[in-house]
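Our consortium's second objective concerns turning raw sequence data into structural hypotheses that experimental partners can test. To show how far this objective has progressed, the report includes one record in full. It was chosen at random from the queue rather than selected for favorable results. The single chain below, 100 residues long, was entered without modification.
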Amino acid sequence: MANRFEQVDEIQPDAITLTLGQHEDRYWGSVHCPATAFPPEAGATDMDSGELPILEALSGAIKLANEIKLALVVVDPDGLWRPQWGELYRWEDEAGGADA
């Protein structure tokens, strides 16, 4: 069974967020981990990887999400997601509308 990832429009405060982007012909990904992923006593702050090669960012985000047991969501405004990486879906509420 392929992995499933929710597509969102912005960094989420309660999930690891993988953002995909491009500069001309160069593709990149960045991983954002919110401070809320750690106990308050850890004194953590939000962490961001900066721009990485896209597959490195994807594998790092998956590994981090699995290690700290936090959801992984994807911001992909340029439509760079590839089916071989898993299924990218949008959450829909019970009324059938997309969650904005």
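The partners drew two points from this record. The longest strand covers residues 16-23. The chain has a mean pLDDT of 89. Both points have been shared with the crystallography group to help prioritize constructs.
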